[in-house]
Amino acid sequence: MNTSFFGAPPISLDQLGPVEQSAPNLILWAVPFMILFTAIEMIAAYVEEKPFYERKETVGSVLVGLGALAVGAATKLALLYAIVWIYNALPWRMELSWWTLLPCYVIFDFFSYWAHRISHEQRFWWATHVVHHSGEHYNLSVSFRLSWVQHLKIIFFLPVALIGFHPVIFFTTNQIAVLFQFWVHTEYIGKLPRWVEYVFATPSNHRVHHGSQPKYIDKNYGATFIFWDRLFGTYQPEEERPIYGITTNIEQKGNPFHINFHEFADMARDVKNARGLRQKLFYVFGSPIKIAETKQAGEAKPEPAEVPSVA
User: Residue 211 in 3-state DSSP?
Assistant: First the structure.
């Protein structure tokens, strides 16, 4: 084994500029093609009179996507600095070798599964992810719905950085993983061959994930590979057509600020009205499903009957 491969020199902070340039901005390059394919799908749906698009939702998706690009550009250097700092602190730093993309991608996808799953199981993280599920129509523009605070979830990917992958490999892997998820947001692609459906997060598998029926909720978290769901018991095949959206759909469908922050506002309101620290923590880190059930039970509780006064 070439031991020097795992003893790469640290990256000087003065070299951050060249390192940033070495990490190709794949998402930015892909934007024109994503817009083109979305436009083609939108036109096809209009011509065929299929209810795949709704004007306000599409506007909301585009505005959220533009905001996500701006946030990504603004935070890229800070995130790169953090990853380079971790890389320099490791004694087993890997050289920049493009073949390491493959193991990095598989490992990254494993942690992506758990980051995604936790984003459904704990309300705080759900607030950073509900943006992506708030659309009631399933189409390519849904892939633009990326939370403006999604970069908080980088903490779930620290184990990938701690393995020692070169920062350029780490950021390139992240971008490829994001771009892979573009094509699965469509109803125009049916079920693919069985082996493809068994291994990958296909449009059919991901449509299930966006379904709001009880059997579809919290299923199929895999970003690229669906075998994580099969392994950890969260897989559900597509059966009846999913009903898209969340259990309580939002009203301001074209407002990107409301789309991004409505759950944070609801959470803050619940915490304010909660009694005691335990209940406050429940409304922040509890299961979104259990929180919804608790709130519904409270709203359904009958008011105490008035005792008629005796004259």
Answer: strand
Q: Are 218 and 122 in contact (CB under 8 A)?
A: no
Rg (CA), the chain: 22
Locate 235 and state its tokens.
């897989």
Local structure of residue 247 (DSSP, 8 states): S
- pTM of the complete model: 0.90
Q: E strands, 60-201, where?
A: none
Which residues are registered as beta bridge partners of 225? 200
- The answer to whether 173 touches 83, Cβ cutoff 8 Å, is no
Write the DSSP symbol of residue 8: P
Alpha carbon distance 166, 171 (integer Å): 9
pLDDT, tens digit, 9 for 90 and up, residues 238-282: 999 999 999 889 999 999 999 999 999 999 999 999 999 999 999
Return all residues near 19 (Cβ < 8 A) that are at least 6 apart.
11, 80, 84, 167, 168
How far apart (Å, rounded) are the C-alpha atoms in residues 81 and 175? Answer: 17
DSSP per residue over 89-107, as a string?
A: H-TTPPP--GGGHHHHHHH
Cα 132 to Cα 146: distance, rounded to the nearest angstrom: 6
Q: How far apart are CA 236 and CA 110, in angstroms?
A: 18
The Cα–Cα gap between 266 and 288 comes to: 12
The span from the CA of 197 to the CA of 262, in Å, is 34
CB distance 287 to 123 below 8 Å: yes
CA distances from 237 to 110, 113, 117, 200, 220 (A): 20, 17, 17, 12, 9
**CB-based contact 91:4 (threshold 8 Å):** no
Dihedral sign, Cα of residue 181, residue 75, residue 245, residue 41: negative
Question: What is the pLDDT averaged over residues 8-26?
Answer: 76
**DSSP-assigned letters across all residues of 288-311:** HHHHHHHHHHHHHSPPPPPPPPP-
